[in-house]
Design brief:
CATH architecture of the largest domain: 3-Layer(aba) Sandwich
Largest sheet: 7 strands, mixed
Number of helices: 16
Number of domains: 2
Helix content: 40-55%
Signal peptide: 1-21
CATH topology of the largest domain: D-Maltodextrin-Binding Protein, domain 2
Keywords: Signal
Number of strands: 14
CATH superfamily of the largest domain: Periplasmic binding protein-like II
Order of helices and strands: EHEHEHHEEEEHHEHHHHEHEEEHHEHEHH
Strand content: 5-15%
Structural class: alpha/beta
Distance between the termini: 6 Å
Protein name: Sugar ABC transporter substrate-binding protein
């Protein structure tokens, strides 16, 4: 049985700030010198899927790049998250991708890299040492770096403090306490949890957290590497049971499997006080500041609670690497494109990214006074493990099945045993 080289990052937080093994290449691969005047107009296409203040941060970085490179223009295109992956696959397969593109690293980026569609950055003059190891590892495959990470995310429960105060509720430490909150809110005609699961990935946060709290951080590693556990492990079955128990309790908004995330209806339920909680990445903070800044004073957050019967460490937290900036191998201007992603991950850009959007940098030693980011940094510092999303780690066919079966669990179209069995059968086909 072959051992898979997991792109999944399951790492002790003691190693979070370890210097990247990729090192720092001091070789100048012929990038254009700063301020060079390029003859004729050069246009670089950049695709990304962050809106609001993040998009403005990227635009400011682009403006700095353009100032240093007269005659070069960057055309940045925003594509909503729900459409982005498909658009990129079509563009790559059609031979007409953007020069620079956004990703989450992991297996999604690796598939393009394996197909020779992404530029390796190893020979460029890039300070790899400035990146957090946990982030750069997720963009490095077989010792080749294929993307520069600007940010990290954590998945936490965000809640309306005003509603909690009204009903005498406190941030839960245990899952039993969490269920008491759900039941109290339901009894008082408040939607306990907003779920926007049309595009499937929001629901997977529950499956991954339940599986981690029940089976521990080695559960996924064992199933993915085919080493001691499988995707039909009892902990995965129980995770499905926990999901369906929440559905049966009426914990979520009506029609949750048909509500899209990008359109914002789900977030409006929180802003308006119709619902009380949402399990989401810390990008939710940026959404609040753009869409409903008056809601920020009501905003609280807590970690996914501990499950008494579980074997997982309650300090474990779900996370992701995003955005990651990469260069398409089809670009006619690779040196300029690499210079652009260098600017998009510069210290100045990282400082803007953290302080203007309420996000976490994938770059070391970025200071902030933002109370939310300080709290998130504390959670990361105390975490035993940060687990990356399955759909960014598994091979594409298995990742898609993971999304499908999890959505079907929420819709009760599959039993927990059926969902786990389907995942394990596909894993045997693809990973054994």
């Amino acid at each position: 049985m072959r051992q898979k080289a997991a792109t999944f990052v399951c790492i002790s937080m003691m190693g979070l700030f370890v210097l990247s093994a990729c090192g720092n290449s001091n070789e100048d691969a012929g990038t254009e010198s700063e301020g060079e005047n390029h003859q004729g107009d050069i246009v670089l296409e950049l695709w990304q899927n962050d809106a609001s203040e993040k998009e403005k941060v990227y635009q400011d970085a682009i403006a700095r790049f353009e100032d240093k490179n007269p005659g070069v223009t960057v055309n940045m295109q925003y594509i909503p998250n729900d459409d982005y992956k498909q658009r990129m696959v079509v563009a790559m397969s059609g031979g007409d991708p953007p020069d620079v593109f956004f990703s989450w690293g992991g297996s999604w980026l690796k598939e393009f890299a394996d197909a020779g569609q992404v530029v390796s950055l190893n020979d460029y003059d890039i300070d790899f040492d400035k990146f957090l190891d946990v982030a750069l590892t997720n963009t490095t495959f077989e010792d080749e770096v294929y993307g520069l990470p600007l940010g990290l995310t954590q998945t936490l429960f965000f809640y309306n403090k005003e509603i909690f105060n009204e009903y005498g509720l406190e941030e839960p430490q245990t899952y039993d306490e969490f269920l008491e909150i759900v039941d109290t809110l339901k009894e008082n005609d408040i939607i306990p949890i907003t779920l926007t699961n049309q595009t499937k990935w929001p629901g997977t946060y529950y499956l991954m957290y339940f599986a981690d709290r029940l089976g521990g951080e080695d559960l996924f590693q064992g199933a993915f590497n085919r080493d001691g556990t499988g995707f039909d492990d009892e902990s995965y079955v129980k995770a499905g049971e926990y999901i369906q128990d929440l559905v049966d309790r009426g914990a979520f908004n009506p029609g949750f499997n048909g509500v899209p995330y990008d359109a914002g209806q789900g977030r409006q339920l929180l802003y308006s006080g119709q619902s009380a909680m949402m399990l989401m990445t810390n990008t939710f903070i940026s959404s609040v500041r753009t869409e409903a800044p008056e809601f920020e004073e009501k905003l609280g957050m807590f970690e996914f609670p501990e499950i008494a019967e579980g074997n997982g460490d309650p300090s474990n937290v779900g996370g992701a690497t995003s955005p990651v900036w990469s260069v398409s191998s089809a670009t006619e201007h690779p040196d300029l494109a690499v210079e652009l992603i260098n600017e998009l991950t510069s210290i100045e850009t990282a400082e803007d990214y953290v302080n203007r959007t309420g996000s976490i940098a994938a770059i070391k030693d970025i200071e902030t006074d933002d109370p939310f980011i300080k709290r998130i940094d504390e959670i990361a510092a105390n975490a035993n493990d940060i687990h990356m999303p399955y759909d960014q780690t598994l091979p594409p066919a298995l990742a898609e099945l993971h999304l499908d079966t999890t959505q079907q669990l929420f819709g009760k179209a599959l039993t927990p045993e059926e969902a786990a069995s389907q995942m394990e059968e596909k894993a045997k086909e693809l990973l054994d």
